[in-house]
């Protein structure tokens, strides 16, 4: 009897320790307990009968303001927190920098709505109007590159220059990635763990893994411990569907603003990569080819490539990226 009691007690202690460990790592789905590099404000939005809000940072130039503004659009698995070094480089050069967390991401609301790049672009335009910013340079990374492209297509008169850092959507994923509906993708998102996130980031985002990247894993995986995680998982599935169903690849020729592409030559990102065989994966997502193809489609576009670099040049080769970025402005 005592032996059974001891085993039960040990099991309870192990479970309690695991629960405490999870609690220590837990992040809210709007990242209230994640410190952003600058003060965060909120822009109110009403859509589909819901009152939601868009988080953003608005950072003034730190040296000799030049009157210009740069807006930074983050990728799907990130928020404004990973732009710190880029913000500093730009503000030191005299630029005002605005960094929104798109609706459904970061510190912004996670509503169940129809997600659309057109609607996201309109919300960002409204945010900038509220800040008195008529014209700006727009830099978009990954999914943010798709959004920045849509923004430039919709608001060319407000876009001084379009900067695309390893944008996704350089291919039409519908033509080779098997269709998976939002509900099925939701079930996949629910299975995310710190281990699976780290493995994905190591294999998909970086050529060489560095300890600094663990913070990205901590934030991405930390929301998985929240009781509200199913909401974030469903929104992630909804935005996956948005990316899959709303390509921009056929409209690059219509871009009317000066454009620069920043491409990591080792980037092999494919949205829905896990649905493909190794042979299919090797036939797509080759940014060393896609970058050149895309630059040739955009009138007057400039292409800047980074050797030994994957999907996030501003983190993997920050010095080279900063020089290229400032030179492009």
Automatic annotation (TrEMBL):
One of its GO terms (biological process) is acylglycerol catabolic process. Gene3D superfamilies: alpha/beta hydrolase. GO terms for cellular component: membrane. Residues 1-24 form the signal peptide. Residues 69-316 form the AB hydrolase-1 domain. Pfam families: Abhydrolase_1. Keywords: Signal. GO terms for molecular function: monoacylglycerol lipase activity. PANTHER family: HYDROLASE, PUTATIVE (AFU_ORTHOLOGUE AFUA_2G14860)-RELATED, MONOACYLGLYCEROL LIPASE. This is Pimeloyl-ACP methyl ester carboxylesterase. It comes from Pedobacter duraquae. The lineage of its organism: Bacteria, Pseudomonadati, Bacteroidota, Sphingobacteriia, Sphingobacteriales.
């Amino acid at each position: 009897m005592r032996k059974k009691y001891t085993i039960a007690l040990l099991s309870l202690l192990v479970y309690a320790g695991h629960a405490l460990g999870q609690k220590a790592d837990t992040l809210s789905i709007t990242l209230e307990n994640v410190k952003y590099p600058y003060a965060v404000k909120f822009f109110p939005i009403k859509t589909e009968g819901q009152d939601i809000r868009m988080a953003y940072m608005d950072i003034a130039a730190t040296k000799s303001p030049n009157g210009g503004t740069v807006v930074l659009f983050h990728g799907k698995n990130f928020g404004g927190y990973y732009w710190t070094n880029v913000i500093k480089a730009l503000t030191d050069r005299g630029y005002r920098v605005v960094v929104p967390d798109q609706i459904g991401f970061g510190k912004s609301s996670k509503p169940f709505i129809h997600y659309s790049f057109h609607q996201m672009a309109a919300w960002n335009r409204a945010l900038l109007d509220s800040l008195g910013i008529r014209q700006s340079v727009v830099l978009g990374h990954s999914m943010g590159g798709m959004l920045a492209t849509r923004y430039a297509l919709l608001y060319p008169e407000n876009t001084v220059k379009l900067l695309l850092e390893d944008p996704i959507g350089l291919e039409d994923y519908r033509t080779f990635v098997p269709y998976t509906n939002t509900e099925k993708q939701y079930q996949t998102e629910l299975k995310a763990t710190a281990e699976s996130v780290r493995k994905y980031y190591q294999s998909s985002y970086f050529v060489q893994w560095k300890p600094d990247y663990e913070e990205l894993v901590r934030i991405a995986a930390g929301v998985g411990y929240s009781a509200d995680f199913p909401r974030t998982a469903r929104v992630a599935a909804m935005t996956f569907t948005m990316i899959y169903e709303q390509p921009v690849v056929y409209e690059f020729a219509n871009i009317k603003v000066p454009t620069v592409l920043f491409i990591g030559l080792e980037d092999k990102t494919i949205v829905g990569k896990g649905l493909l065989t190794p042979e299919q994966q090797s036939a797509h997502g080759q940014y060393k080819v896609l970058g050149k193809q895309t630059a040739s489609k955009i009138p007057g576009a400039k292409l800047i490539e980074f050797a030994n670099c994957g999907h996030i040049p501003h983190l993997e080769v920050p010095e080279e990226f900063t020089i290229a970025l400032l030179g492009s402005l």
